[in-house]
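General statements about sequence and structure are easier to judge against a single worked case. In the encoding step, the backbone of a single protein was reduced to a row of integers, each denoting a local shape. The record that follows shows the chain in one-letter code together with its fold in token form.
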Amino acid sequence: MTHKIILVVVVLLFNSPAFAGDQPIGEGRTPSLFGCYARIYDRAHLASHKGQLVVRATLSIKPATPEMLADKVHPQVALGDLKMWIADRKQSFDSLGACRLQGEGLLCLGSISAAEADACSSKGDGVHRCRIADTEGSFEIQGKAGGVLITIRERLELVPPPYDGGPFLYLSPTNVGNHDFRLFKTTPEACE
């Protein structure tokens, strides 16, 4: 009986997050969030979330560059490349974010394009040919069973490649239909 208990304790210990690599990203710890996440929202989901603009999303989380890791003032630990597609558009809208630790997850600054565009008269979410703001916005990434939850924290501007012009997709934290996105872990090819 004692040997069985010891065996169970050893198995549990070696399958714990400390040994399995599921610790949060941080100094001296293995990043559990690194990888590719994706989701295609089916018709049933979109029918029950009528205001949702995003029909498909991918997120690639990679280690930060050595230069970013060495920055003691603004330490960044990861790069979060977020891509979103909306209905009737083949090209993705992207935000290439530098991420820092926040609790058990990451807070990623968005990226803004170099485009010079007129200011929008409307501040509403959606696709615009004009600029709502010149701030990069931000999104948070929290680990969830089988994937991640992406939450828009500050109005996020996403732009299509090659990132030097519009149109622009805007998502804000106050828009209930477009501020949280659950994605699931998948193969790296899904994020290419």
Observations:
- The two ends are 51 Å apart (CA to CA).
- The longest helix spans residues 2-14.
